[in-house]
Design brief:
The chain has 308 residues and is of the alpha/beta class. 44% of the residues are buried. The longest helix is centred in the middle third of the chain and has 18 residues. It is globular. Helix 8 links the parallel strand 7 and strand 8. It has eleven helices and eight strands.
Length: 308
Amino acid sequence: MQDETFRSLSVHGVGFAYRRLRAAAPVTEPVVVLGGALQGMFGWPQMEERLGPVADVVTADLPGMGTADPLPPGPAHGLLCAALERIIDDLDVPRINLFGFSYGAGLAHGCTRRVPGRIARPALGGVPAHLTGGQLALWRRAAGHLSRGDAGTFSTMVTEALMCLDEDRYVTRRAPALRYVRRSMLHAARHSPHAADALGRALTDRPDFSGVPAGVRTLVFSGEHDTVTSAERQRAFAARIPGSRFLTVPDTDHRVVLERAEDVAELAARFFTDGPLECAPALAPVPRPVPPPARCPASPELLSVAVG
């Protein structure tokens, strides 16, 4: 069993916490995992299981998330990056690996630009590099339902906004992923004291994706059918980062870290240990289930025999 420790910190008077799972024999820098706006420190078991043998794994309730204090008024990204720097200092390491997904990808990208010397390797998945006016309007309507206490409508709207529902595009584990995402959103809406504010901040305090981190080896990956920001737009975002790699994970949408959880964790482990990415299981299509053979109706002769 891994050694697990919790630390409570503060930045600019705002309290937050992080959790560290120590590897017995780490071979790379600690990996800090940053997720979505409503995702806390206990939402990454698949990353812990795969990365645990090679690195310390750190998850956090940053300001405004989970059990942390609410964010103060005003722009939040500077404060959140300062909180991440505080974690790095408390870990007592010169640099970390950084895994950012969805909202966390924007935060990870901004923090890498701010302190490139503290980030060894950023991996950015499901990067919301471009959102349309229609998408933002939908999210605002969902946030309105949440602020009025309608957690059910909120969780359904958010789930459908995050996932590809087009049956003509194959997404592995679509049905269980839909159920899981809705349940997790419903739980966050009902139990996180800052859920409405965190979602509102994610909509109004958008990260700046125009700049690039200098001299930092970066991985960007996208689900093939991501409907939040398309794989093509994420590829264009990655192309602006010198020396970056962009990879598409087949048969997945924006919830790629759920639909192919083990493969994404394996991809991250390879990247953070400078392993080969070309042969990563995440880049291969998923074997599709074989439909059962069609049952042919019995002939009239057989039916007549069967009924006597």
